[in-house]
Amino acid sequence: MGWLGIYLRGVLMGAADIVPGVSGGTMAFITGIYDRLLGAIRAFDLALLGLVLKGRIKDAWQHVDGAFLLTLLAGIATSILSLARLIAWLLETHPVPLWAFFFGLILASALVLLRQVGAWNPARIACLLAGTGFALAVALSPALGLESAGLPAVFGAGFIAICAMILPGISGSFILVLLGMYAVVLNALKSFDLEFIAVFAAGAACGLLCFSRLLHWLLRHQRPGTLALLTGFLFGSLAVVWPWKEALDWVEGAGGEMRPVQQVPILPGRFLQLTGEDPQLWLCIALALAGGLAVWLIDTRWNRA
Fold first, then answer.
1. Is the pTM of this model over 0.85?
2. In the chain, where does DSSP find H-type helix?
């Protein structure tokens, strides 16, 4: 796998993480680097600490697949820095067509991953349905309102959000919204609240190290069932990126603006009745097909590299 390919995968992961409801783990999964990424993350262990303490920096770098991680992080950072404003503008001014593109992308991704499960049996079908049901429950849940629960809740929010971020189909930022911590985290970052940031980062680090090991073990020992479960996450997440939605609940954002937190998918005709806005049906269909085509190109040119 070439370094340019890894860098471009990072760009795709960064672009996905910018959009609430879309996971960078999805991009890692469909571009064929998910196993390698989990392996690199789980390599941050006691063996690494021993190598560092002995001054064997080169061996430590190779132990964590440092060149891969650095290249991937460079792509993620490039994407976030260069695309954040564009995608934020699209979400603000053209949300329905943008969600349609991501709907096509994630639907095609789920269909591609179905091929990797292999022969289906009742257990794998149950895993697929469980993943779909869990992602749907997350997508349609109301906010919990943990913003005033103290530092233990901050640690837990970091732990859970980072776990969601590396799962295909589940967005870490969306989990923070559901926990009622999204605006709180943004405000803490904006005001540079060191205590809050340190506790949140500690929770995220613990979650990343623990959950990456669990996923790595499952993919090594129960790969077909785990792939079916992750594919179910993608199918369930389609409720988040469905272009036409009705907001049932709202939460105050970091800038005082009201953000929808609990939304349910509706048909384009109902969307027109509720909002008076053009559902842009044909444009959405075209963009969904474009998203599907993008996944096909990624799968044929990169995932099999």
1. no
2. 3-18, 24-30, 34-42, 46-53, 57-63, 66-93, 95-117, 122-139, 151-165, 172-179, 182-191, 194-221, 223-241, 268-275, 281-298
